[in-house]
Automatic annotation (TrEMBL):
Organism in which the protein naturally occurs: Staphylococcus ratti
Taxonomic lineage: Bacteria, Bacillati, Bacillota, Bacilli, Bacillales
The protein's name in its UniProt record: D-alanine aminotransferase
PANTHER family: AMINO-ACID AMINOTRANSFERASE, D-ALANINE AMINOTRANSFERASE
The keyword Ligase appears for this protein: no
Catalytic activity: D-alanine + 2-oxoglutarate = D-glutamate + pyruvate
Amino acid sequence: MTKVLLNESFVEEQEAKVAFNDRGYNFGDGIYEYVRIYNHKLFTAKEHFERLLRSASEIGLELNHTVESLTSLVRELAQVNDVSNGGVYIQVTRGVAPRDHAFPTPEVTPVLTGFVKAYDRPYQKLEEGVFAVTTEDIRWLRCDIKSLNLLGNVLAKEYAAKYNAEEAIQHRGDTVTEGASSNVYAVKDDVVYTHPANNYILNGITRRVIQWVCEDENIEFKEEAFSVDFLKNADEVIISSTSAEVMPIVKIDGEDVADGKVGDITRRLQAGFEKYIQSHSE
Ligand SMILES: *Cc1c(COP(=O)(O)O)cnc(C)c1O
């Protein structure tokens, strides 16, 4: 039986009821995180929960939690469900109040929910690479907040699914921003390029780990915006996320990236990532 998190309690999934007037339901008024579990341990939990607290603060949502309290709640959720490899989803909405756009006055208590799911690492895809398509980025201008408002991302991912692609790489005009649920990198002449971590992208924790690996390996990491053309003419293309890890892209819009094979820099980043799984899980 699956137990989910509802505020501070672990309840059977079938018994976990949320309110009709929850602002998450009415407005997508809330934020979330997704944390990976490797070998019974949480990977980069501190970074994820720091980001959750930042997202909350950016939307003026006051959360009665710390990195430590969130970590222990999520760790317990994984334990009660006996999940050794998989991921934990946790979300917070502003709370329950009669539908009105402005924040409720007086303030209401935020609603925290979460679930855990077991799954294996995507070994075959990491080995062979996956396909992507490109699509216009139609999202709002605060993509740095991991918000529950995901309609732009949902439509982009659905577009990818329609073309049997793993991910939709979004661009604003000519500038590549990020995937529907991942960050995007173009490798050219051994330099790793990725969009700067500003309001146009979600600053991924996996992106940060890739940056650490680049420092360790003396690979140049350039936070510099690039064009769709640059992406399509890159030597290697990669996406990254908590679930996809360091994922090679070998085809974009039906055309091979370079020779269509996974490149050397990608392999070095993947190998470096493995070390961080060991050193940053607890
Ligand atoms: C969560 C997310 C990412 C990846 O972030 P990670 O912390 O690496 O999982 C990238 N882009 C978007 C839009 C996301 O929501």
